[in-house]
């Protein structure tokens, strides 16, 4: 498959201030892609904006709490008002919501490069083969199913940082941010109901044990 030329394109990266979002921005900038950096507070992406500008790309900063639709709408208005459009969306930070039929966010994420049927089949097959190995971030489902443990999605996220992205520092930091009293109950909690309700059918109990073994001693 021919690599796309993204020089001069504009990419919106949510949750750009640290971790995966920050690394994605650095990678896109290496290929000449201009960036819109999102975080809850624009001050969080100030230093990153300076680094990216030094690489010769254009950078804009936007802020907004993604769980607040009014802030999301205001952020998108800000993004689109620049007149450059958005060619690439890297949705690093997001909020799991129910299905929406009003398509309010389509103009912000529309990529005008049309995918071929082969491209669509490749992505569909890849998603089908790999989706069971990743937490969908639907914390309201698993957290509510386990008494005394309300941070299962954070445990899954820290393990993903460690196993899939090799970012051990971010993995340890994310795991350490889980309240100490919750961490103390991770190995004794009953995860059967959470596993039954998990849309990805993930082996939550086993993954929690793995996270504790790999990350607890390092926090």
Structure report:
- This protein has 2 domains: 10-113, Rossmann fold, CATH 3.40.50.720; 133-218, no CATH class.
- Residues 96-112 have low confidence and may be disordered.
- Helices cover 45% and strands 8% of the residues.
- It is α/β, with parallel strands linked by helices and 219 residues long.
- It has 11 helices and 4 strands.
- Strand 2, helix 2 (46-54) and strand 3 form a beta-alpha-beta unit.
- Helix 7 packs across helix 11 (204-215).
Keywords:
single chain; 219 residues; alpha/beta; Rossmann fold; 11 helices; 4 strands
Protein topology:
Layout: E1 10-13, H1 19-30, E2 34-39, H2 46-54, E3 59-63, H3 69-81, E4 88-90, H4 106-109, H5 117-130, H6 139-142, H7 152-163, H8 168-176, H9 180-183, H10 192-197, H11 204-215
Parallel strand pairs: 1-2, 1-4, 2-3
Helix pairs in contact: 7-8, 7-11
Which radius of gyration do the C-alpha atoms yield?
19 Å
* CATH class category name of the largest domain: Alpha Beta
CATH architecture of the largest domain: 3-Layer(aba) Sandwich
Strand order of the largest sheet: 3-2-1-4
Task: Please trace the helix and strand order, writing H or E for each element.
Answer: EHEHEHEHHHHHHHH
Number of helices: 11
Q: Which fold name fills CATH's third level, the topology of the largest domain?
A: Rossmann fold
CATH superfamily of the largest domain: NAD(P)-binding Rossmann-like Domain
User: In terms of structural class, how would the helical and strand content be classed?
Assistant: alpha/beta
**Shape verdict:** elongated
List the uncertain runs: 96-112
Distance between the termini: 42 Å
Approximate helicity band: 40-55%
Describe the main β-sheet briefly: 4 strands, parallel
